[in-house]
Amino acid sequence: MRNVTLKREWVLGWLLLLPSMVLLFAFTHIPAVTTFLNSFYSTPRGRRAAKFIGAENYERMLGDPVFWQVLWNNLWFALGTIPVSIALALVMALWVNDRLAGRGFVRMAYFTPTVLPMIAVANIWLFFYTPGFGLFDQITGTLFGWPATNYLGSPETALNAVIVVTVWKEAGFFMIFYLAALQSIPQSLKEAAQIEGANRWTIFWRITFPLLMPTTLFVSVNAVINSFRLVDHIFILTDGGPNNASALLLFHIYEVAFQHWETAYAATLTVALLLILCLLAIGQFFFVDRKVHYK
Amino acid sequence: MTGASPFSYDRLLNTVAAWALALLWILPLAYAVWTAIHPAAYEARFDLLAPLTLENFVKAWQAAPFARYFLNTVLLVTMVLAGQFLLCTLAAYAFARFTFPGRNILFTLVLLQLLVMPDILMVENYKTMRLLDLVDTIPAIALPYVASGFGIFLLRQTFMTIPRELDDAARVEGASALGVLWRVYIPLAKPTYLAYGLISISHHWNNFLWPLIVTNSVETRPVTVGLSVFSAIDSGVEWSVINAATLMTSGPLLIAFLLFQRQFVQSFMRAGIK
Question: Which residues of A touch B228 (CB under 8 A)?
Answer without folding.
Answer: 119, 235-236
